[in-house]
Write a structure and sequence with these properties.
Blueprint lengths: L1 E6 L2 E6 L3 H4 L4 E6 L2 E6 L1 H8 L4 H13 L5 H9 L4 H4 L6 H17 L1 H8 L1 H12 L7 E7 L4 H11 L4 E3 L6 H9 L5 E5 L3 H6 L7 E4 L4 H26 L22 H31 L2 H6 L4 H29 L9 H23 L5 H18 L12 H8 L2 H15 L7 H21 L6
Parallel strand pairs: 5-6, 5-7
Antiparallel strand pairs: 1-2, 1-3, 3-4, 7-8
Length: 464
């Protein structure tokens, strides 16, 4: 039902479903499913159908329009009405209607300072916080030595540990009791006791024993520190043997070399992985809030009262957030390269294609969330819970997806972040190109289409 009122030269257009509101207008147009049924004053429309109220007249007009043989006078009047190109596309995907919704959403986004700030500021802030905050590097582990031997050999061993980037020497230990106390307070993570006779045994060709205490409160760091100690000790013993002229028994020496990320900097894997988290979390919340906000304000009634198709409404709402999210991806990629110093070894085109498919899938998750949420707060909470935990725990950011088992492995592979994490880390660290990532592209495209279709099925055109 559309109406208009003129007062003091000002024309006011009103769109409403309520007949009591329409009856107050000077002239109204009755519409159903995009068809113009009649246009006249409220009194004239009621009199033309011989009805008691405007609502009864409206129902009678709808019944008459549904009848195959329409009255000749009404058919002739309808034929004289100028056709509207906006409604001609009713049987197909209307590009004009879709673009109209996209433009409207962009205008609303520009006027809403909070959502605009979330679009532009939230992704780089999250990247900085998580990029610096999440690190798997075990470096500068504080250690102290209780040197009972005090020989050049024992000092050489301590210097070898202190000279590596993995350990940081603290004031020496003076007693056995001090070992437990300083480990308990967290001042030390590693305590080493060098026994008396350590140097003598080395000179004699024996392998002396060392007492090493490692803080195991965090198992990953403890096990990594233990591996560093063994590696440094092995290298030190090898150098010591060369200096003394005893090269060993002629066995083949295995020298491991790292094919990728030779410096073993976790930032080279963590920051590209954080891209997957940020580009999932923010677009999902923005997309969910965009539609739920219309439910809260009641403006979704405009969609329900017009001939706009559900797919046009969804894609029109989704397109601006895909574009904004892709712009955020470009900004985050620049920060990854220039702020964090992560080299982009692979194809930027391959990374961009993956990112475009990924943000499409991420906004698809937001569409799906909006089908169930009724308030903006609920949409934000649900979107955060659904995306943050899988993007951190099951996407390969912390542990490889291939190492997951059971339900965790299924969820990891059934979530878009795990596929984009492979693209992002692979392009940045391993130098992958587009032809190496076709299966990941296919998976992300399937996610995007499936999520959009599911949202389309759950979106009701008319209220029950």
């Amino acid at each position: 039902l559309a109406g208009l009122s003129r007062e003091r030269g000002v024309t006011i257009f009103v769109s409403t479903h309520f007949m009591s509101e329409g009856a107050r207008c000077d002239r109204i147009a009755l519409m159903d499913a995009g068809r113009l049924l009649a246009c006249d004053t409220p009194a004239a429309l009621v009199a033309a159908r011989g009805a008691a109220t405007l609502e009864e007249a409206f129902v009678d007009y709808i019944r008459a329009a549904a009848t195959p043989a329409a009255e000749p006078a009404e058919a002739e009047a309808a034929a004289r009405e100028p056709p509207s190109s906006f409604f001609i596309e009713r049987g197909s995907l209307g590009a004009r209607r879709l673009l109209a919704y996209a433009r409207r959403e962009l205008l609303e986004l520009r006027r809403d300072s909070i959502r605009l700030a979330m679009c532009l500021l939230a992704p780089p802030i999250l990247l900085i916080v998580l990029g610096y905050g999440i690190s798997l590097d075990v470096e500068h582990v504080p250690f102290a030595v209780f040197d009972r031997d005090r020989t050049p050999e024992s000092r050489d061993y301590v210097d070898r540990l202190a000279g590596s980037r993995y350990f940081a020497e603290r004031p020496p230990l003076r007693s056995d009791g001090e070992i437990g106390r300083r480990l308990a307070t967290g001042e030390l993570r590693v305590a080493i006791e060098i026994p008396a006779g350590f140097g003598r045994d080395l000179v004699a060709g024996h392998q002396p024993e060392l007492g090493v205490w490692i803080d195991g409160a965090m198992p990953f760091r403890a096990e990594t520190a233990r591996g560093y100690l063994l590696a440094i000790e092995e290298g030190w013993l090898r150098d010591l043997a060369r200096r003394s002229g005893s090269e060993g028994c002629g066995l083949a020496e295995i020298v491991p070399r790292f094919r990728y990320n030779q410096d073993l900097r976790s930032v080279n894997a963590i920051v590209p992985g954080v891209l997957a988290l940020v580009l999932m979390l923010v677009p999902t919340m923005l997309m969910a809030v965009a539609i739920v906000r219309e439910k809260e304000l009641g403006s979704i009634a405009n969609f329900q009262a017009t001939p706009v198709r559900r797919i046009e409404f969804l894609l029109g709402k989704q397109a601006p957030y895909v574009a904004v999210s892709f712009a955020a991806f470009l900004l985050l990629t620049g920060m990854t390269v220039w702020l964090f110093g992560v080299p982009l070894k692979g194809s930027f085109f391959a990374l961009s294609v993956g990112a475009l498919l990924y943000v499409w899938a991420a906004t698809g998750v937001g569409l799906l969330v909006s089908a169930f949420a009724r308030t903006q707060i609920a949409a934000i909470v649900v979107a955060a819970v659904l995306t943050a935990l899988p993007s951190v725990q099951l996407s390969g950011l912390i542990a490889p997806v291939s190492s997951l088992t059971g339900a965790a492995a299924v969820i990891g592979r059934a979530f878009p972040a795990s596929w984009f994490n492979r693209i992002s880390v692979g392009v940045f660290t391993k130098g992958l190109r587009a032809e190496d990532l076709l299966d990941a592209y296919a998976a992300l495209a399937a996610f995007a289409v499936a999520l959009t279709v599911a949202s389309l099925c759950l979106l009701r055109k008319q209220q029950a």
